[in-house]
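PT: before anyone asks, these are the final sequences, not the draft ones from last week. 810 residues across everything. Please model them as a single complex and drop the result in this thread when it's through.
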Amino acid sequence: MEDIEEIEMSGREIPKIGVYICWCGINIGGVVDVPKLCEYAETLPNVTFGKEYKFMCSDIGQSMIMDDIKEGTINRVVVASCSPRMHELTFRRACREAGLNQFLFEQANIREHCTWVTMDDVPGATKIAKDHIRMAIAKAQKLKPLKVLKVKVEPATLVVGAGIAGINAALDLGNSGYKVYLVEKTPTVGGHMAQLDKTFPTMDCSSCITTPKMSEVARNPNVELLTYSTVESLTGYVGNFQARIKKNPHYIDQKLCTGCGSCAESCPIECPNEFDLGMKPKKAAYLSFPQAVPGQYTIDMNHCIRCGICEEVCPTGAIRYDDKPEYIDITIGTIILATGYDPYDATRMKQYGFGIYPNVVTALQMERLLSSFGPTGGKVRRPSDLKEPETIVFIQCVGSREFTGKGRKYCSRVCCMYATKQARSYKEKHPKAKIYIFYIDIRAFGKGYEEFYNDAGKNYGIVFIRGRVSEVYETEDHNIVVRAEDTLIQRQLELEVDLLVLSIGLEPRSDIDDIARIFNVTATKTEDGFLMEAHPKLRPVDTLTDGIFVAGTVVGPKDIPDTVSQAKAAASSAATLMARGEVEIEPYYSTVLDFRCAGCKSCIGLCPYKAITFNELKKIAVINEILCKGCGTCVAACPSKAIVQNHFGDDQINPIIETAILKKINKREVKVE
Amino acid sequence: MVFDPYILGIFCNWCSYAGADGAGTSRMQRPANLRILRVMCGGRVDPQFVVNALMNGADGVLVSHCHPGDCHYIEGNLKTVRKMPILHLYLKQFGINPKRAKYIYVSASEGIKLTETIKEYVEEIEELGPNPITGGF
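LR: through. Structure below.
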């Protein structure tokens, strides 16, 4: 591809524009008359011909363009088809392969902005299509050949979040030989998966499959684990990001700590335990859970009273009350965001009594209760009197599929299966227990899920009742009464049970806005609050910011298999960039015309990238083309029009505006509004 | 002859253009009055583009870019927003209703909002009537 010699172009030659109009099957061709558009295009100045084809993006479509370029009949290409965000690169590549400078191509969007939004209005769509084609041709007249800038890609990745997604991505990249910085906010890796008891539908013990991965990622020589750390700021661009990472103080020297646990044993302070979701206190000097990686202790300074007992008992003298946060600066080529989710806050659904009645727990708390290293040692006991429940009710879709505004509109995808799993898991230990699951629909969509659900009803005797619970209240002995309608047999039900489990959904993290802001991916936040993929089907792990990828529940609710597949996809996408070693950057940078610059310095303060400096000798502004990202803010602001931007210059945009509007101007009849 | 407003949209590549693509992909129908010109950033929108469009007979110009804080280029959008009041003042002095130049924020996921805004703006312009510079229709 690199061998192709580029046809010499100065940008001043007479444009010979080839216009190619795509039918896009019936997407465009079914609304507007494509052959007529071709005829129309041929009437416009400097257009050599207008051609049409069913799918311009196909190989045949592309070779149409390439053949015409090679024959020398055209030196500018306009394709009227879909959005340039979709296929600009495809057609640019075709131009390049035929020897034409790729920036002598312009795309007119007659699908997303035309036929798809005015499907029933054929004359309207035709009018817009003509306008868009005319605008693209106007720009094509003024296009100039440009040289792409190439920058080196630093062979290192920053993975944010060390849940199962982050761990898998880090391992894949580390094993491929790339340097990985794995940043985790909490003192241990593992994320939510480490909290789970079992995984559906195989009933694998969750920690048995997570902990080996956790220690593997800690051992991998290419992975630098930065736990209890956060990313403070990010600058740079694809291939060359600079991140500042804040390592929070552990108040225990992590190098000296052997993880013996004497500090926690002797610590007199008990404080809320995030890992066990408040069901068992932790000491102020703590290890999140026994299998935590890394296995060093941390002091929770929000609760520590600095009594000094741990300092006395620590055999290695590792306690540091005056520990300070540490900042490290790293340079990375790619970034993977795997920051995960927050469980839905069930106190918002007041009708279910969570936070009011002791025996109403969330499903994540149920996971901890079921877990062998949980607060009750694997024996499920209800919080009020530590009795093992004989009857349990699960309420599905708590905070999901909720259109009243208290919850989220989407389906959280995992609740049907984890409730079934928890019910089965409890039934295995207590075959006589009665378990009811109130659902709206059971969504058992994955591999082996439907069988798992079917089995739960048939062989485990778990009762699935279709109906949303209307009321929950407590009896004197803290039993929970659940009122609902079984909508299949249309009968009112009232059940008195020992324990009520709320199948809470998955929500975007509460700090998702900060994450999005730091990594400059805010523009890609979807309505539901999760981050958005660059393309929901074809670029599921890319963001709109080059070099930043996403994996796992940061994009939306998903189960563990999907999360792991995404993590591996993100790792492979990051590796693809790094393996190539360099990336091409669109050369949309601006330059200062020194003979016009008056040296007013207006542009310098406006540049968000500090790319403009002032030449004191010549008294003019100078733009560094590598630092310049091509936003064009300075171009719009320069009072003497001394700054020109590549590809989006005033001399390119103004002709578009002028030719776009075909209105006769009658200056004599101008009335003041 | 029925008045068919000519509206030129100047959209930033990262938020609003993507939002308009999203509206298209979701087939959200809107009146056929808007043509979209793509620039990389809202900051690139020189007020002269708006004036130029109005001088050439556009009935309305819709400038759309990222929400504050969401700009792909950190804050280019805000730089343009600050030029807005003076442009409106300028248009007024020259006898053009400032409503003919509208600035909006549309993110990549706000296809619905964009479609609604376009519908409203078309109605607004229909009420205003044709750009006086064209001498009617």
